[in-house]
Automatic annotation (TrEMBL):
Coiled-coil features, chain-numbered ranges: none
The organism's taxonomic lineage, starting at the top: Bacteria, Pseudomonadati, Pseudomonadota, Betaproteobacteria, Burkholderiales
Organism for this UniProt entry: Trinickia dabaoshanensis
Presence of the UniProt keyword Hydrolase in the record: yes
Protein name stated in the entry: ATP-dependent endonuclease
Pfam family of the protein (one): OLD-like_TOPRIM
Annotated keywords: Endonuclease, Hydrolase, Nuclease
Single GO molecular function: endonuclease activity
Length: 600
């Protein structure tokens, strides 16, 4: 089974969203754009256990916690405002098709919509496929003073007029949906709590254990006081005092210690999975193992579940990269892509992002409470192989931000962020670029800038370019730069090394050359022992920077110089960038005179 559409209304941080999916999906976007909320929405509709909690939802599951409409004129009763989440499923399993046949509709594959009445003629493959539409609605019940949520078949032809048929828990289990939350996965994954991965495995294998009866019987017969005789006098003393107020008529001792409440549910919560990591270490609770080990154990359980239900496993997984080495991140991503029918992943890791095709990668955007998505493949100007090549080289970081500053070489990539930080330190009024969501990106060569600028612009980012002057630059390339970038800075120098050599004080440049010569780093640059004339100093610096682009020397020079010695062209360019990101309102240092001081 696969999810092809998700519609959200009034749920958590999303006022409205209408998202289309085509198989495996990687969701990327800045923090608080709605990635986790989308996963929670899927769990609310498809998860078999989510609605069995009490309460299943609360005030903050409604957008802006608005679960009641504003009061009408004359103080009319406030009407509950519902939340609604709808999912459309295709590629239904034989079992789901057989048990939900009366609720089947048809999905137009090409137009990505439901077929309506009068379209029976095209309700056949390849134009249309059977689909199942489910919706979860939640609302506040004023009479009971409670929140309630239920899942229904959106198409319920056999229900009473105006009513929908509920989806039973047994049907939800057939969907095979699993939601693994970031950071919280390990706390329950290896427990026996309901809905944990171990519990899911036992249910999938049809295991009906007598563990609970046997364990409760064993615990009931365990005499703790026998091993701790010093406790018995205290308990007897407690009994005497209780007997003054309560008639304790039971034979023998009226009080006793047990290690559990001796109920199934309490045992589920208290039982713990122990693990021995090395030969010299005893078994310890799995949660005490390293976070990376716990997450890898979770992956092992996921593979077990997928093998048990290979045709009906839909995973939603938040940030699989947390506390996991890069090679394990890649393995997790590859596993999800090859062993599940559909997976939804949120990630900030280039090692995960590079595993998904551009057509599988959705960039989420928010305007107010309305969330939209766009495939990365829709961002024209960048081929799929280029996307995968550059994903680990800064492309992912830019995609997750708000602005991309495109440069055409390693020297600029290393040096410009240093200059920006120096400016931020010099002027606290500036909004730091990393906080503003602006990231630097190396387009790796002359003339590549417009291609990436067009890509970032199509994704809705602010686009900024800083590149060398080329007298013979073709007119069409100039036009491409102007079209692709909001700030299009072609500086007057033939190269960034020329810019540094010509605009920084010669004395500072000589100090830098002397330092690298003294450290033995200069190699074949040919730095003289005595300071030559200014022109020779500038020529030598240009040669040094050009022959050692990967050494970060320009960045070091910007780090060590006085602030006033930074190249004016660089400072002017970065000032134009900072102007795009006004600083947040300042926090007043002086207390409000109307407020009393906390300490006199």
């Amino acid at each position: 089974m696969k999810i092809v559409r998700l519609t959200i209304s009034n749920f958590r941080g999303i006022r409205s969203a209408n998202l289309l999916f085509e198989g495996h999906t990687l969701m990327v976007g800045p923090n608080n754009v709605g990635k986790s909320t989308i996963c929670e929405a899927l769990d609310l509709v498809l998860g078999p256990d989510r609605l069995n909690r009490f309460p299943a939802i609360d005030e903050f599951d409604f957008y802006n916690a608005n679960y009641l409409a504003p009061p009408g004129e004359g103080g009319a009763v406030r009407v509950p405002v519902p939340l609604r989440i709808e999912v459309v499923l295709i590629d239904l399993s034989v079992e789901v098709d057989g048990k939900c046949g009366g609720h089947i509709e048809f999905w137009h594959v090409g137009e990505k919509r439901l077929l309506g009445s009068g379209e029976a003629a095209i309700a056949n493959p390849p134009f249309a496929v059977p689909c199942l539409r489910l919706e979860t609605t939640g609302k506040y019940d004023p009479d009971e003073d409670e929140f309630e949520a239920r899942t229904f078949f959106s198409h319920s032809p056999d229900a009473e007029a105006g009513e929908l048929t509920p989806v039973p828990r047994s049907i939800k289990r057939l969907f095979g949906f699993l939601y693994l939350r970031a950071l919280r996965t390990g706390s329950r994954a290896l427990s026996l709590e309901r809905g944990s991965l171990l519990d899911i495995i036992l249910r999938a294998k049809g295991v009906r254990t007598r563990l609970w009866e046997k364990t409760i019987e064993s615990l009931r017969g365990l005499d703790i006081e026998a091993d701790a005789e010093e406790i018995a006098p205290v308990l007897r003393s407690v009994e005497k005092r209780l007997s003054r107020y309560i008639a304790l008529e039971a034979p023998g001792n009226a009080t006793r210690l047990h290690v559990s409440e001796l109920t199934r549910e309490h045992l589920r919560k208290t039982m713990s999975f122990f693990l021995a990591i090395s030969a010299d270490q005893g078994h310890v609770p799995f949660a005490h193992a390293g976070t990376g080990t716990v997450n890898t154990l979770v992956l092992a359980l996921l593979s077990f579940i997928a093998e048990l239900k290979p045709e009906t496993v839909i995973f939603a997984m938040e940030e699989p990269e947390i506390a996991v080495a890069p090679h394990t991140q890649r393995r997790i991503a590859d596993y999800l892509l090859t062993k599940t029918t559909q997976t939804f992943v949120t990630s900030h890791s280039p090692f995960v992002i590079e595993r998904f095709e551009p057509a599988q990668t959705l960039l989420l955007a928010r305007i107010g409470g309305d969330v939209s998505s766009k495939k990365v493949s829709e961002a024209t100007g960048l081929k799929d192989n280029e996307f995968k090549r550059y994903a680990r080289w800064g492309l992912s970081e830019c995609m997750l931000g708000k602005a991309a500053i495109v440069v055409e070489g390693l020297t600029e990539l290393h040096a410009l962020p240093v200059a920006a930080r120096r400016m931020e330190e010099q002027n606290p009024e500036l909004q730091p670029l990393d906080i503003a969501g602006a990231a630097f990106f190396n387009s790796d060569g002359d003339g590549n800038g417009p291609k990436f600028g067009k890509f970032f612009k199509a994704l809705g980012l602010k686009t900024i370019a800083f590149y060398d002057h080329k007298p013979a630059r073709p007119e069409d390339q100039k036009a491409s730069y102007a079209e692709a970038f909001e700030i299009n800075c072609e500086h007057v120098h033939k190269g960034f090394e020329d810019l540094i050599a010509m605009e920084m004080p010669a004395d500072r440049l000589w100090s830098f050359l002397s330092a690298i010569k003294g450290s033995g780093e200069s190699g074949k640059v040919g730095i003289p022992a005595e300071r030559p004339g200014d022109d020779d100093v500038r020529a030598t610096v240009k040669k040094a920077l050009a022959s050692n682009k990967g050494a970060g020397w320009a960045a070091r020079l910007f780090e060590e110089c006085e602030f006033g010695e930074l190249p004016p062209t660089v400072v002017s360019f970065l000032n134009s960038v900072f102007a795009l990101f006004p600083p947040p309102p300042s926090i007043a240092d002086e207390p409000d005179p109307a407020e009393p001081e906390l300490f006199a």
